[in-house]
Amino acid sequence: MSKILKACLTLSLIALLHLAAGLNASAKDEPLAAWQPKFDPAQAEYTYLLSNIAHPGIAGIGVGYKIRDAVWEKSGGRLYVDFRPLAQLGGEKDVINKLKIGAVNGMLCSSVAAANVSSKLGLVNLPFVVDTFDKLDAFRSNQELWDEYSNAAQRQGMLVLDITGYGTYGWATTEPVKSLAAARKTTFRIAQAPVNADIYKAWNLKFTVLPWPDVPQALQTGVITGLDHTPIVCNITKKFNIAHHFTRVDYAQGLFVHLVNKRWFNKLPKDLQQVLVEVIVEESAKARVATRKQQEEQIAAAETAGVRFYALPDRERAELKALAEPVYAAWSEKIGGGYLERVRNLLGD
Asked: 293-317 pLDDT, tens per residue?
């Protein structure tokens, strides 16, 4: 009996050691461990389920956790912002559909995907319109233009509460691209958005539309040799491990549009509506400031790691803008009301 008992105890000890090792590994591998709330969400009367596909290390995404904590404090624990980054609730097109029916309450939606909600929301992705941090600030601070933009999703049952960013668009490539001639030998991955396809057709550049999770393998296998994105995203998500070159085209600001289901929002008590909107506006403004700094930091970090950065010559940027004129005309008609023209007049060149 003593031998059997010893064997059982030994097996139990081994099982416990394996379980402990598994738990430690899970904690170590948990990518969101650092962002867990320091309060008990179960106490909340209301929950705001907020989705995003990207990594919270990006300032324009990490804002979701800052909103969560500030709303909890200002609401006295009545409203919990259950923020789910890293595509926990699905890809953007899927989540947009969930948001329409109220299965998800809110979404930090990339501006490229937001064009699928309303053509007006796609305005910010048109080339050389909202292409600098200063222009973004000017656009957001013009109340008349902002009100029109923020109401653009109402027909889809959504409200636009604010915007954050993820930097300035250019080209991450596996080979140096210092000119349009070199760019035309490159196959770019672009986002699943109609405005981006129109731009690349007008620019006469080779492109393919791929879901974001497919990008690393496509770069490694040579299916694509370039990526249309920002330095912040390329560095934080390790795309520079494969694409060691970046061309500063600086043609658009990458944005996250904060969408909320209108029906859910209207059912929220008035005082909590006010708390939620005030916090989102305050924290989004801070995040836009942080994004400017983060872009500089991520470029410096990438350069230190050996990534080479190039500036597309001004004359070639001007050529891209001229080639995009048919795109401006087509999207001005889609957007309607002379809105694009008013935005371009405000922001200038």
From this structure: 999 999 999 999 999 999 999 999 9
The C-alpha atoms of residue 244 and residue 63 are separated, in whole angstroms, by: 29
**Residue 316: predicted pLDDT:** 97
| Domains of the chain (ranges, CATH numbers) | 42-166+255-293 (3.40.190.170), 170-252+303-347 (3.40.190.170)
Rounded Cα gap, residues 104 and 89, in angstroms:
8
Q: Are 52 and 108 in contact (CB under 8 A)?
A: yes
Mean pLDDT of the chain: 91
Q: Whole-angstrom Cα distance, residue 95 to residue 278?
A: 24
Supply the Cα-derived Rg of the chain in whole angstroms. 23
0.90 cut: is pTM over it? no
Phi, psi of 10 (to 5 degrees): -65, -45
Give the tokens for residue 189: 């991955």
**69, pLDDT greater than 50:** yes
